[in-house]
Amino acid sequence: MPRAFNTAGPCKPDIHYMLRPDRRLPGLRALIDGQSYFVIHAPRQSGKTTALMALARELTASGKYTSVVLTMETGEPFREDLEGLEPAILGRWQKTCRAHLPPELQPPAWPEAPRGDRIGSALTVWALASARPLVLFLDEIDALQDEALLTVLRQIRGGYADRPQAFPAALGLVGLRDVRDYKVASGGSARLGTASPFNIKVGSFTLANFTTDDVAELYAQHTAETGQAFDSPALTAAWALTQGQPWLVNAIARECVLVVRADGATVTVGDVEQAAENLMRRMDTHLDSLAEKLHEPRVRALIEPILSGGAAENVPMDDIQYVLDLGLVRRAPDGGLVIANPIYAAVIPRMLAFVPRHGLPQIPATWLRPDGSLDEALLLDAFLSFWRQYGEAMQRTASYAEVAAQLIVLAYLDRVANGGGWVTPEYSLGRDRLDLCLRWRQQRVALELKAWRDGRPDPERAGLGQLDGYLGKLGLDHGWLMIFDQRAGLPPIEERTTTSPALTPAGRRVTVIRG
Fold this sequence. Notes:
The chain has helices at 21-24, 28-33, 48-61, 82-100, 118-129, 146-159, 212-226, 232-242, 246-260, 269-282, 285-288, 290-294, 297-308, 317-325, 342-352, 354-358, 376-395, 404-417, 460-474, 493-496; strands spanning 37-41, 66-71, 134-139, 170-175, 203-205, 329-331, 337-339, 421-426, 434-440, 443-452, 478-485, 498-503, 509-514. The strands form 3 sheets. A 6-stranded mixed beta sheet has the order 8-9-10-11-13-12, sandwiched between helices. It has a 5-stranded parallel beta sheet with strand order 2-3-4-1-5. The protein is elongated and about 80 Å long. It is built from 20 helices and 13 strands. Helix 7 crosses helix 8 and helix 17 (376-395) packs across helix 18. The protein has 515 residues and is an alpha/beta fold. The termini are far apart.
């Protein structure tokens, strides 16, 4: 039976396609050989546990080390019960070692020790009894918070000087964030910052996303086992849509081979795009889990200006790094910040528009011709009617106030596209606009959305120039420019919503919509 593309939990090499761990963690083996303590942080579903479990197996099989991945998540319910914290963690560790280590390498019975020293004492006894140096990876470390976290970190730091004879030779803390962002409620701060009890770390690693070669190699494993190929444009599209995010890479392939191309035929670029749309419409678990992060103040402070195309003013560097570490954004080649990949770029505004979208009234598809094609003029009429009647009230339901109007438009177009197309947004910091492309079967409608705020000039002229470039990129000769007038003292939306024709600098036709 062929292996499968995995989208739930760590990969197992006998049943899942996967890449070698050293491809994802270059330089880590040198730190281990140098008896270093370090931090590995990366977003959820990026393959941390998979890579580290594979590395631990390799280290143990080498005969040089005893290595295992141990979870700290068991301690999460005990953040205010320090008496129960350490026994819960150590009990889980004992079971993990029995499952993943041969009998001669398993730890002895944990010793009796006072509260606050049980984990450190257990590691000391294990290291003393072990015929090999211990290399341990403490996974989900940031599941712990406050005193529960601090007591564990202090015990690790306390034993550090006794390595390798009486404490693990090398140890990695593994989680979503770098150590400075671990959550504590002591000292008047919500984070450790630089005053960390884990100041013994040599470095911090993050797992890189898959490269184009990684995607090709992973998908080729499926081809080798089943004969079903992914053509070259499909491989290019899979990487472009995901930017190599491991869960997305696997999820798209899984959707292609089990649903879109379940007949075993060669997977094409159209199949990959359909698979991506299926994932976005279902809001599969990984995508759905992004929603909780979007409402954190530190995340919102960066995501909101990206969506509006504005500037992220007075956002601390630590907060920018935090959102980068979460995998929500990435640095563009020009140094600016953009949403991490096109799938996230489409999903994030959909999540933020969830309430407006489900608050939309029933919208009869009056814009469809008898042959099922889209009539842009009728679509514009339907949108203007909706906007005049509901636009003002619905903006009050949007969770990101600065981009409320843009989210309403996206929610509307997403409803239009449902079942026959999809909406692709493009935005980044400093662009001062949001571009949307409504794809309906073989048709495309390009829109540029801009806000007019107090103290700023009318954005129409700049918008026409910017839309010109977007239309040229899409190969279209016409589009819509939507200007949301958000200055104070204006008449109601139903009175100020108008349309007028215009031309871009290159002579492309534009309908300017003001509201």
